[in-house]
Amino acid sequence: RPVSTLKGALEIATIKEATEQETTSEMVAAIFHDFELLINDLTHLMDVAEDEGDEGTFDLVLGLKTQLEKNVWM
Length: 74
What we know:
Ferritin-like_SF, mainly alpha, Ferritin-like, 3 helices, Ferritin, DNA protection during starvation protein 2
């Protein structure tokens, strides 16, 4: 059954909410870390899409993942 509430989504989210107490350097590090988490999640999604033969989803996610990897690299 899909998650249908914000509370439920926050419970399973890989990216956690900021505390609003972070320094500028901590915020930048958190964004970098969040991008890495997203890349991992997108990689998993690509694996699932490939297993299911869903080429459209695979291609869409590949584009998103490629852009995030570029942002992390820069």
